[in-house]
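I am sending you the entry underneath: sequence plus fold tokens. Let me know what the token row says about the fold:
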Amino acid sequence: MKLLNAMHRLDLHLLTRIFSQGERRTVRPLARALSRSGDGYLQVLVPMLLWLLSAPYAEDFATALAVALAAERTLYWTLKNSLRRPRPQVAVPGFRSLITASDQFSFPSGHTSAAFLLATMLTLFYGGPFAVVFAWACGVAMSRVLLGVHFPGDTLAGAIMGAGSALLTAQFLGLA
């Protein structure tokens, strides 16, 4: 129990430090744009673009991404609705997020999980140059904390879950 309390205190401390940066007017538009980019559209648009460009392995990529997303979304939904961790606005007295989240629970961050899943899958299939998408995935994770809808631990769990889902799927399909 002491470990959980220490982790929660660290999460609160990091939330306060990071969220205060999101209150800057110059940071808000970027945080909102990054957060919106993690809404799930890229998980559909990227495979379509790869197919339209006749990229190598485009069909295998689309299949692997679909399988990984199905597994990840199932795990995400199960964890979120089982653990029911309240979002910062509910859990922290006097705290107000900068946006309204689409659901009421915080753990894990679905935006972050899906972003890291896509970044990992792109890197597995297309290598080094696509590793830069991890910068975008990190931006999505940070934006969720900057906007006050997740604790940092939620996004860390989401990153691990998304990357892990991609890696396990690739291994299961014999791609890694």
About this structure: The mean pLDDT is 89.
